[in-house]
Amino acid sequence: MHLQRLSLRRFRNLGVQDLEFPPEGVAIVGDNAQGKSNLLEAIYYLETLRSFRGAPDMQLVEFGSDVFRLVGHLGGTGVSVEVSAAFQKKGKRKKVTMGGVEPDRLSDALGSLSAVVFSPSDVELVSGGPGDRRRFLDILLSLNEHGYLLALQDYRKVVARRNALLKDDQAAELIAAFDHGLIRTGARIMLSRLRWIENRREAFCHYYSTVSGGSRASMSYRPSFALGPAGSLDDVADAFREAIASTRDRERRVGSTVVGPHRDDVRLRLGDEGEDLDLRDFGSGGQRRTAALALRMVEARTVRESRGEEPIVLLDDVFAELDEGRSERVLDLMEREETGQVVLTAPKDADVRVRSDSLPRWRIRDGMIAS
Amino acid sequence: MSVIDQLSTELARLPGIGPKTALRLVHHLLKGSREQPRRLARALEEVADRVRACRVCGNFTEHEECEVCVNPRRDASIVCVVEEAFEVGAIERTGQYRGLFHVLGGHLAPLDGVGPNELNVASLLGRIRDARGGVNEVILATNASVEGEATAVYLEEMIRPMGARVSRLARGIPVGSDLEYVDGTTIAEALAGRREM
After folding, report:
1. In this structure, is residue B194 part of a structural domain?
2. Cβ-defined contact of A176 to B157 (cutoff 8 Å)
3. Is B79 in the same domain as B30?
4. What total number of domains does chain B contain?
């Protein structure tokens, strides 16, 4: 699957443009603040229906306009699909169509592009708080695992209601009434996350080692309560139930639910397993960026496995902060992994070295693209 | 404010009706004979004046007690608990249920300040207690939402010690749908709640 055409209508500073993308991809070169990242943001919007930079929809509409609209034409083996997304400031209305039809739920349209975005802010995945890593897992699993998003939405609802009761110091029976839903949805979320980490820890290690030129790092899931080797949903649910029972006093004191997937974390460590050097605390800038890159590579692999096609890879100025050796090894890796279409941005021509310089170049200035 | 505006404002307060639909309804009512809007007004008035909650179960009725509660042929050993009174009608239309009802008037909603005291929970527990073992089974037919589930769990904890059997409506594949089009969560629920043939 690759992006064939993209119609931009008043998204950020990109104005009104219709772009034809080559199947192998394109390198977009331009000075800072010309709109390079905006273009990648527009493409990835069709995958997650929101900004990968965390911007609210209101901010994505061109200054002075009311509506933005994006239409992407995706081509695969003999098929072409049209995906569109539009947002209107007035009334805050979002409209999405797939093949011209509005899906029943917005969430049914998630993941229709099969894309992965690499950006300099990914380093937050490693150096940021646990919330950043949970968000990474939640977006990834929502896009690639059926039923995950629904469980996550229900879980958040239960936690909010349960916390309101705890803050209000309500009767124990009332709080316990929400335990059932908390455990049912929470265990489902935890098991999916655990399995994902378990199945991809080797891949993470491999990517980290390749990009860093032989160093080692590991990743593991760190639940907020003691959890034995989790075999089944029932095992996780039982452990969760026990953890809730043993924290009743504490959650009363704090006024919120203190254990569960909303408190879990992913541990990223330097060295071999068993060594305890947390990348967040002890990693250098380069090591953290390498780990973040490895996480995105694992994400790309997940997309490939779950949807059976090469993901579109969006690289937002990722080489700017890597040393030369690391940049080259990332490029090597990308070529060997047989990535699909690559859309990359860079401020200077010299930074564009993917596919032996074979990618066509586009220039961007004030949001306008010249091929 | 003109009387036309007044009426369309009132209509726009109803669920699913926006200002434009409200205005269209008003125009429609003014177009034909004046008998239609008068009939509608009388029907609205009668509903407002005569319909009230059944003293026993909270269902809609025009008397002290509802049709279901006073019917001697209904099985008083089974009580089906629903969130809203209009859900009684949904179950009645199936013609499959011969027991009694109890209307909660909502579900537990901590964010809206709705607890057991705001719902008809005490009257439900009182009914079961007063029946002195006469109620064998309580069917919890709350919605499949997060709050509906919590409401059912809460009621179960309260009712079970009183000796009645407590059951919940089965969740699963809608009748007449193809398995391949049913979402994963629903299939998982249906698998967990499967029964022997």
Report:
1. no
2. yes
3. no
4. 2
Sequence-separated (6 or more) residues with CB below 8 Å from residue A220: A197, A201, A266, A267, A269
Element (H, E) at B24: helix B19-31
The enclosing domain of B163 has a CATH number of 3.40.1360.10
Best B107, B146, B149, B189 member to test A by mutation, with max A CBs in 10 Å, is B146
Identify the three-state secondary structure at position A145.
coil
Cross-chain residue pair A161–B147, CB shorter than 8 Å? yes
Nearest Cα of chain B lies from the Cα of A181 at a distance, in angstroms, of: 7
Q: Are residues B80 and B129 in the same domain?
A: yes
Mark out chain A residues that contact chain B at CB-CB < 8 A: 146-147, 150-151, 154, 157-158, 160-162, 164-165, 168, 170, 173-174, 176-181
pLDDT at A142 over 70: yes
- Rounded to whole angstroms, how far apart are CA atoms A347 and A365? 11
Amino acid letter, residue B169: L
Q: How does pLDDT run across A70-119, given as a tens digit for each residue?
A: 999 998 766 788 999 999 999 899 999 999 999 988 888 999 888 999 99
Q: CATH number, domain at B43?
A: 1.10.8.420
Indicate the pTM of the whole model. 0.87
Q: Among B193, B173, B195, B192, which residue's Cα sits nearest to residue B183?
A: B173
Residue B159, amino acid? I
Which residues in chain A are contacts of B185 at CB distance < 8 A?
Answer: 147, 150-151
Q: What's residue A355's pLDDT?
A: 54
ipTM of predicted assembly, 2 dp? 0.79
> B99 and B159: one domain?
yes
**Same-domain status, B92 and B17:** no
Is A177 within 8 Å of B115 when comparing Cβ atoms? no
Write b or e for each residue in A142-170: b if 16 or more Cβ atoms lie within 10 A of its Cβ, otherwise e: bbbbebbbbbbebbebbbebbbbbbeeee
Residues 113 to 152 of B: which have CB under 8 A from any A CB?
Answer: 115-116, 146-147, 149-151
Which residues of chain B lie closer than 8 angstroms to A147, CB-CB? Answer: 183-185, 188
Give the integer Cα–Cα distance in Å for A5 and A19: 6
Contacts of residue B111 in chain A, CB cutoff 8 Å?
160-161, 164
Rounded to whole angstroms, the Cα distance separating B151 from B133 reads: 23
Please give the Cα distance from A286 to A296 (Å, whole number). Answer: 15
The CA distance from B171 to the nearest CA of chain A, in Å, is 14
Co-location of B33 and B96 in the same domain: no
Whether B146 and B81 share a structural domain: yes
Q: Is residue B178 situated within a structural domain?
A: no
Same domain for B106 and B161? yes
The encoded tokens of residue A140 equal 């990834």
Q: What is the pLDDT of residues A176-202, one digit of tens each?
A: 999 999 999 999 999 999 999 999 999
**Chain B residues within an 8 Å CB radius of A160:** 111
**Chain B residues with CB-CB distance to A154 below 8 A:** 146
Would the pLDDT of B23 be above 90?
yes
Q: Is B111 on the interface with A (CB under 8 A)?
A: yes
B110 and B142 part of one domain:
yes
- Residue B147 inside a domain? The answer is yes
Q: Is B175 domain-assigned?
A: no
* Cross-chain residue pair B115–A174, CB shorter than 8 Å: yes
Q: What is the span of the domain harbouring residue B25? A: 3-50
